[in-house]
Fold each of these.
Amino acid sequence: KAKSEGRSTYHFFEAGMDAALQQRRSIEAGLRLALQRQELRLVYQPLLGLKENRVTCVEALLRWDHDDRTISPVEFIPIAEETGLIVPIGEWVLREACRTAATWPGEVRVAVNLSPIQFKSRDLVGLVKSALSEARLAPTRLELEITESLLLAESESVLKALHELRAMGVRISMDDFGTGYSSLSYLRSFPFDKIKIDRSFMADLTSRQDSQAIIRAVIGLGQSLGMSTTAEGVETEEQLAMVRAEGCSEVQGFLFSPPLPPAALANLLQSEKGASEAERKKAS
Ligand code: C2E
Ligand code: MG
Ligand code: MG
Ligand code: MG
């Protein structure tokens, strides 16, 4: 009896494992085919420059339409990183974002998220050059966002790649600042152009004094290091007023705009351009 009970417990456990593993395997298998099936697309979230009072930059964000739903990058990027699929996917993102940005008016820049795995693989600098020249996009119109990670810290070759990109005119941003273990030492190891303050600090800005103090300090830090600052996750007028008063360079968040499909983003840029031209005519 004991033996059969033991076995059924084992089977139950195994079934539970199976379900989780199955789910993961199915995402993995689906992700392998996502590129060729054209299930990946980019949405674009504009960043508002507070001094310029216009869209200064647009962040490209990945979406995966699969099995009648849209899967968030939060769900599939980690799997793409573990399997190495982030390398071809990341290459597609970079090329697609550059091609799209080349159709935008004026000096609007495009920001692309890079996974640390992409630095480990092949020739990242060569890939960026190729994506820019294929799209005929000036290097100064591209920003690369990287999050702090151990991979980056340890590697001389990563720093070399970052310096080469920067020498080309590409801007390098530190994403999600303040969430990792060693944000401050990263600022010392590389001269980032921009610090993006993680949206968790914005989220409890009104309820927590310490978050406000931290945001203020990071904006000041950016100013003294000659780096611009972006407040992520700005959802209310109150948050906007606070970061504006503190001298933040840019805001990104649902208050100004959610991520948009490419056509809607192009319309937004076009109407903004129209409005500023009308302003100029009126003034002259
Ligand atoms: P991230 O780079 O920090 O991107 C900002 C995230 O904040 C986006 O989530 C955006 O939709 C969300 N967001 C923007 N404004 C607000 C707001 O006001 N409130 C709230 N609650 N959220 C806001 P998303 O698109 O789900 O992307 C999540 C993360 O996935 C990104 O965080 C980035 O780390 C990663 N990711 C997205 N696309 C790519 C990609 O092409 N390559 C790589 N390697 N990672 C990507
Ligand atoms: Mg980002
Ligand atoms: Mg971010
Ligand atoms: Mg973030």
Amino acid sequence: APVLSVRSLTRHYATGAGLVRALDGVSLDVAAGELVGIFGPSGSGKSTFLMLAGLLENPTSGEVWLAGERVSHAGADLDALREIRRKRIGFVFQKANLIPFLSAVENVALGLEIADVTPADARVHGRRLLAALDLAHRADSLPAKLSGGEQQRVAVARALANAPPLILADEPTAALDRVRGRQVMEIFRRIAATRGAAVVVITHDPRSTNLFDRIVHFEDGRVCERPQIY
Ligand code: ADP
Ligand code: ADP
């Protein structure tokens, strides 16, 4: 079974201005080892898709399956899905959102969700992850002492702490310069290729198109087969 499978996913919002069809019947499979880019204009439903696929919100209709198991649907209990969310999905957002009074390695260790791991072991694991992202020398620094690119790589390390089979990233390079952005994208590329993770990245950076195994274009809440050139 695909790591992620979404079936006819729809999300409507009732607003003062009427019904907004943020997502309108999206179906998509992402396999292990696949790096998928999601492109599309602002307001086309990309973030909504990621929130639903990440079990952070429920769809109005449709289903989300992880590794062949149906986990989310219109009436799903999101609190009950917290365990699945934390152990099996790694999230990266535009802002690193690190805890300011914890060091880089402590931030990464916090992402670890293995019940019987000691704090000391968690730090060893965190250092190893940071080293793999060329951040060994920053492990004991507070976030404020790190550059934007370094902070984002710490956020990536935190997302990888549990070795989740699925990584979801929403504009992870938007706040970074070209070199740093490329570096973060290369990390996703490597995680997909070497660890076999399914990685879904929302971006509108056309420079990253050649890194993806597959590109999906969104328009008006739907997957668009014949996209405009962005
Ligand atoms: P994108 O990520 O592609 O910019 P979004 O998924 O954020 O698009 O939004 C898709 C549409 O849904 C937009 O029209 C947006 O205004 C609307 N939308 C998203 N979230 C909400 C919400 N909580 N309430 C009302 N409308 C929303
Ligand atoms: P927590 O257990 O910390 O409450 P959740 O299991 O609810 O986290 O969510 C998983 C991850 O998604 C966490 O890293 C959390 O910071 C992030 N997250 C949750 N909701 C949102 C949101 N609305 N916007 C951005 N990030 C979010």
